[in-house]
UniProtKB/TrEMBL annotation:
It comes from Rhabditophanes sp. KR3021. This is Arrestin_C domain-containing protein. It comes from the Eukaryota.
Length: 326
């Protein structure tokens, strides 16, 4: 007994949420078989694995592994129940729509989200024959985000102190007032995170330049334990000066690569993996610096789909590529 998958229209096995995964499963029987059932579905799993080391009373240590899983199933069908199949080739077509609310494929040190087309064939008095083919689900701009994309957010204002670069000590008049005005509430991959920063320098030193860091924060939960990772997506330097008692507005633009979208309880119910992004701005003076950060919501690229925003200037239609492991 042999089984194989043949996919239509998509040879790289990369799909967007809302796409259909279409193809054929071919089952080849060398002889006549009675079959209890054949079960086919698109299945996903979000799994987190956290390892903790504990000290024992005798001075030794032991490790415990904590695991949590969230499962996804779509397009499940059961065929050939209690039927006898002739020898030869049996082709089972499938066409399964990927739900819009499924999170994108993801992989990190503590967890992963992965998907597969899975077929189980049960022959009486034998083990279940299992066949699978992994597929990649890429993030895409969702119709529900349209209003957030086109609306302008409120500015974010905060006062920070200039600290000595090597010590967390500030002296005298050392305040820097940051007021950030993001271009929008939601940013799409293959576009830029654009924002204006109004900087009011109330410190006793000139600001010589700015460093802007684009950072991804991941949190993982398994059996009430949590772990976290931090990854710098990019770091850019901008040599704009703001002198003492001066106020300037500076425009920043940070490219967004193809990567995981923001994942939280709003778009991933029961999430055991959360992905968030922040922009950190560091203002450098003479031997001093001030830091300010704000969150950004990242979603997939806008494609030329009926449900996406039709805007020739900002529409994208590119071949799907596997997500980088960031």
């Amino acid at each position: 007994m042999k089984g194989s998958f043949n996919f239509k229209y998509n040879t790289d096995l990369c799909f967007y949420s809302g796409n259909n995964v279409a193809g054929t499963f071919s089952l080849i029987l060398g002889k006549k078989h009675k079959v209890d059932y054949l079960n086919l579905c698109l299945k996903g799993k979000s799994q987190v694995t956290i390892t903790r080391s504990d000290s024992n009373p005798d001075g030794t240590s032991s490790s415990r592994i904590y695991v949590s899983r969230v499962n996804f199933v779509a397009g499940q069908v059961t065929l050939f129940e209690n039927k006898e199949l002739e020898s030869g080739l049996h082709e089972i077509p499938f066409n399964i729509k990927i739900p819009y609310d499924w999170p994108n494929t993801f992989k990190s040190v503590h967890g992963e989200i992965k998907y597969k087309i899975r077929v189980h064939v049960k022959i009486p008095w034998t083990c279940i024959r299992k066949y699978r083919q992994f597929v990649t689900i890429l993030p895409v701009f969702l119709p529900s985000l349209k209003s957030s994309y086109i609306s302008k957010p409120m500015p974010i204002r905060e006062t920070k102190h200039m600290f000595l670069i090597l010590r967390c000590i500030s002296f005298g008049a050392s305040k820097i007032v940051f007021e950030v005005q993001p271009l929008r509430n939601v940013f799409c991959m293959n576009e830029d995170v654009e924002f204006d920063v109004k900087v009011e320098n109330k410190s006793s030193t000139d600001i010589n330049h700015f460093q802007v860091e684009f950072i991804r924060y991941c949190s993982f939960e398994a059996q009430r334990l949590n772990d976290h990772t931090k990854k710098f997506i990019s770091t850019n330097n901008f040599y704009d000066q703001v002198k003492q008692n001066q106020t300037r507005t500076i425009n920043f633009s940070i490219p967004i690569p193809l990567m995981s979208a923001t994942l939280n309880e709003n778009n991933f119910k029961g999430a055991n993996i959360k992905v968030e992004y922040k922009i950190k701005i560091i203002a450098f003076g003479t031997n001093r610096k001030a830091k300010f950060s704000f969150p950004v919501y990242i979603t997939g690229p806008r494609l030329n789909l009926e449900t996406s925003i039709s805007d020739n200037k900002n529409s994208f239609n590119f071949a799907g590529k596997p997500l980088a492991i960031l």
